[in-house]
Amino acid sequence: GFIQCIQAQEKPEASPLEYPFDETGVETSRGVFGEDDRKEVKDVDGIADYVRATAVMIPKKNIKGNRVYGETLRELLTYQFGTNKFHPNVKFLDQPTCAYCTGFLIAPDMLVTAGHCIKTLEDAKDYVWVFDYTNELKHNLFLGYVEVDPNDIYEVKAILGAELKSDYNNKTDYSVLQLDRKSWRHPYRFRTSGKVSNWGNVTTIGSPTGLPLKVADNSYVVDNTPNNWFKNSMDTFPGNSGGPVFNQNG
């Protein structure tokens, strides 16, 4: 990137501040819209196959043997906001934030994620994809690492297709990766035609803010009119990028 200097112009008066949740002084959640409905994957019935087919992207430099190193959410937010005082409704503060993006299997060795996560093989070379990254893994809070099964770690062998466009009427943000070997996990079933239903319930599994996999299932489709994307009400964060959106049919 670069900085371009131009002649300063007189700044117009700012518009009145609009509060996105409630007026000041009203007690309300300001981290998410409404209640934070995210759950641990082990606490949701009927999604075990989906969980097993969902992976997270982790930098190779953060892995030593079977240990994945990363700061806790509390440490991350303390550094980001300059305070260690958090409201009691902030979840998962003492869990690790090791992951960068989410992906899901559509074939034994094919994984889909977002184009802004991985677009080229050059992008992929510094990362691995780790399955079964849940809060049931052994977490050494003092030394700052999570123990993973080396059999759950995969590298990217090839990019089968990727595109990233930000145009409002033609949003395209995907990448299809070929992993270095096949997995025994059952891939996701995916829709090949038609549209999701407006107001239909949808679920996602992913790694919000790099956390172990979480489920957001109290969500629904708000607008299905765009051609190749739809708007929904999910509680998602950076790190959920590339994660699956599914209903009872896949």
Extract low-pLDDT stretches: none
Number of strands: 16
Determine the structural class based on helices, strands and strand pairing.
mainly beta
Q: What profile does the largest beta sheet have? A: 7 strands, antiparallel
Written overview of the protein:
This protein has 250 residues and is mostly beta strands. It is built from three helices and 16 strands. Strands 10-7-2-5-6-12-11 form a seven-stranded antiparallel β-sheet. Strands 1, 13, 14, 15 and 16 form a five-stranded antiparallel β-sheet that branches. A four-stranded antiparallel β-sheet has the order 3-4-9-8, with no helix packed on it. Strand 11 and strand 12 form a beta hairpin. The longest helix has 9 residues, at 73-81.
Keywords:
250 residues, 7-stranded antiparallel sheet, single chain, 5-stranded antiparallel sheet, 7% helix
List the helices and strands and how they pair.
Layout lengths: L38 E2 L7 H5 L1 E6 L3 E2 L2 E3 L3 H9 L19 E7 L2 E4 L7 H4 L2 E5 L7 E2 L4 E3 L5 E2 L1 E10 L6 E8 L21 E6 L7 E10 L7 E2 L12 E2 L4
Antiparallel strand pairs: 1-14, 2-5, 2-7, 3-4, 4-9, 5-6, 6-12, 7-10, 8-9, 11-12, 13-14, 13-16, 14-15
Describe, in short, the structure shown:
Helix content is 7%, strand content 30%. The chain has 3 helices and 16 strands.
